[in-house]
């Protein structure tokens, strides 16, 4: 995921969270038509965020499931408005809490960790064999840091603790 994509995704997460909070506040029997309009806005925003969110991201499946719940709630409210039901279920029964993992600090922390790992690799390479090995060690250390296995995890965790 490119830095611009991550920034766009984080911005959309903020918008979705705010709109979700707003629609839950107005989802009541006396304002159900307004809630339907807000759910339509939320559905459009969820479609947009799903285009931005990579399929491998841990939020992706949660967003797909939440979009389905929003569509079901929207249909339920439209049926309720049309007079198909006398009792209106609270939205909490149909919508799970939206707990997305993307934060504003996420991209910055990743860049800081990657820079620290590359710097340490370059320093060790320079101290051992010179400038060419510094370049190779920096690239190798950065490669290890972005791997999705135990070596990458340990490298990122150690760098994260060093930054704190």
Key traits:
single chain, 164 residues, mainly alpha, 2 domains, 0% strand, rod-shaped
Outline the secondary-structure elements.
Layout: H1 3-26, H2 32-52, H3 58-81, H4 106-128, H5 131-146, H6 150-163
Structure in words:
The protein is mainly α and 164 residues long. It folds into 2 domains: 3-93; 106-163, no CATH class. The protein is built from 6 helices and no strands. Helix 1 (3-26) packs antiparallel against helix 2. The protein is rod-shaped. The relative contact order is 0.10.
Short description:
74% of the residues lie in helices and 0% in strands. The chain has 164 residues and is mainly alpha-helical.
Helical residues, percent = over 70%
Secondary-structure-derived class: mainly alpha
Q: State the total count of DSSP E strands.
A: 0
Helix and strand element order:
HHHHHH
Instruction: Determine the number of helices (DSSP H or I, runs of at least 4 residues).
Output: 6
Our Rg estimate from Cα atoms comes to 23 Å
Mean pLDDT: 85
Strand residue percentage: under 5%
Please summarize the sheet with the most strands: none
Which parts are unreliable, with pLDDT below 50 for 5 consecutive residues or more? none
Oligomeric state of the chains present here: single chain
Q: What is the count of distinct domains?
A: 2
Query: Which outline best applies?
Result: rod-shaped
Distance between the termini: 25 Å
